[in-house]
Amino acid sequence: MISEEKATAAKICVSVATPDFAERPGVAQSSAMVELRLDLMLPDLEQVKELLHHRHHYRLPTIATCREGKLSLPERLQLLQFAIRHGASYVDIEVEADKTYREALVRLAKECGCKVIISYHNFEQTPGLPEMRKIIADCRSMSADVVKLVTTAHTVHDNARVLSLYEGESNLVAFAMGSIGKITRLACLYLGAPFTYASPASGLESAPGQITAEDMSIMIQNFDF
To answer: Mean pLDDT across the chain, nearest whole number?
Structure first.
């Protein structure tokens, strides 16, 4: 039987984004679930292999993510394909990603037993319910094992709209960014999200409104999940 402490930790995915490789192994090795933001870490292939080897050995789930921005499409494809081949548990692909790029990653992920997260991020606002439900449907049509939908909250009504998406859905991680949206990062677990995202420490946030893993753990323990 899994201990309460481990069950709590398993719900928290720590997003590792620091470009200083020396700071990463400790966080990656001690967390029950980790997202490797390869686009921000900018590791070489050997460093990716080192991180994944340790976590795969201990059967600790790891999400490989490489967002658009600093790296070219071929560079991102190479990093994510390498991560999939070396034990990543999940690969996160943006819903708006190039079709050829996405299909290549999905195909390899299925071959290697790596689950696919199709994600949507809106750093400006929270769309209306019909649009968000269409986004979820689009993600599922792209062979998503898990759909991640993240918006930006400006009002509590935005929070309510995002959290209402859980009705009738499974394998969905939906919450809102920003200070107003912080509560949704915790509430989503109560509504059925398999995990939520947190930062390894204060000052190392990879998204607006991200809560530290320590604070998130305390909050989860104070509620009956």
So the answer is: 90
Residue spans of the domains in the chain: they are 4-215
C-alpha 86/C-alpha 167 separation (Å) is 36
Q: Is the pLDDT of residue 1 over 50?
A: no
Query: Would you state the structure tokens that stand for residue 156, as one six-digit string?
Result: 């509590």
Q: Print burial letters for 127-153: b (CB count within 10 Å at least 16), e (below 16).
A: beeeebbebbeebbebebbbbbbbbbb
Would you please indicate which residues are annotated as catalytic (active-site) residues? 121, 148
In angstroms, the CA 166 to CA 178 distance is: 20
Residue 96 CA to residue 158 CA, distance in Å, equals 22
pTM for this entry: 0.91
Burial of 180 (0-12, 13-18, 19+ CB in 10 A): middle
Structure tokens at 223: 């509620």
pLDDT at 4: 44
Identify the burial level of 162 via C-beta atoms within 10 angstroms of its C-beta, where 0-12 means exposed, 13-18 middle and 19 or more buried: buried
pLDDT tens for 34-75 read: 999 999 999 899 989 988 987 876 788 999 999 999 999 999
User: What topology does CATH give the domain 4-215?
Assistant: TIM Barrel (3.20.20)
